[in-house]
Amino acid sequence: AQTVTQSQPEMSVQEAETVTLSCTYDTSESDYYLFWYKQPPSRQMILVIRQEAYKQQNATENRFSVNFQKAAKSFSLKISDSQLGDAAMYFCAYRSESGNQFYFGTGTSLTVIP
Amino acid sequence: GAVVSQHPSWVICKSGTSVKIECRSLDFQATTMFWYRQFPKQSLMLMATSNEGSKATYEQGVEKDKFLINHASLTLSTLTVTSAHPEDSSFYICSARQDPLYNSPLHFGNGTRLTVT
Fold first, then answer.
1. Which of A36, A43, A54, A90 to mutate to test the interface with B (most CBs of B within 10 A)?
2. What is the pLDDT of residues A35-47, one digit of tens each?
3. Among A16, A25, A90, B93, whose Cα sits 20 to 30 Å from the Cα of A100?
4. Rounded to an integer, what distance in angstroms lies between the CA atom of residue A82 and that of residue A65?
C-alpha cells in the first residue's frame, strides 16, 4: 500500500502570514492524484486543493497553492495571507489513477495566531 | 454540488445494542462509498469499501460481522454497528466518489459520533 507522510504534527502561523505544510508519499506508479483536505473543529472534511500527477503546473485555489515535486514525491501546501478560519487539521491524500482507495497522511494541526 | 449526507450526526446507545448509520449522496451517483473511523486527533482509518449491489470489502482487522455494510442503491450505503461495546465509541465518517469522474475527489459526510455506554 502507498504511504503518505506528514512530518509536521503541529504548525502555527501568524494571521496574514504564509505557512507551508509538508507531505511526502511513496509510490511506484506514474499516474495518480494528490489532495489536501481540511478538517476544522466541526470535523467536516473539506477539499482544499487537488493535483493530477501528469500535470506539471502546480495547482492553485485562491490563497492555497501546492508545490508538487514528482521526482521527489513531495506535495506541499502553501497557505498565503492566513486567516483565523484556516485553523484546522490538514490531511494530505493520495489516490492511484486506476484505484479507488485514498491513502491519508497523519495530519498537521494548524493554529492561526491573531 | 456533490453533497454527501450522513445521519445521525451523533448517537448514544447502550452496550449490546445495534446502531445504523446512513450515508447518502444527494446529487450524484456513487457506485463506491467508503467508511472511515477516526479517533481523536488522529487520521482517518479506512474500515471498508462499500460497493453497490455487491459485498463490501473490509480492511484487515475490521470485523465483518460487527460492522455490517449494505449498499442497496447508487445513493445509499449504511453501516450497522452490531452488539456495540464501549470500545466501538468513535467518530465514523462516510465518503463517496462521483461516478464516473475519473479524477473525482472524495466527498465526505459530516460524520457520526457514536458513544456506547
1. A43
2. 999 999 999 999 9
3. A90
4. 12
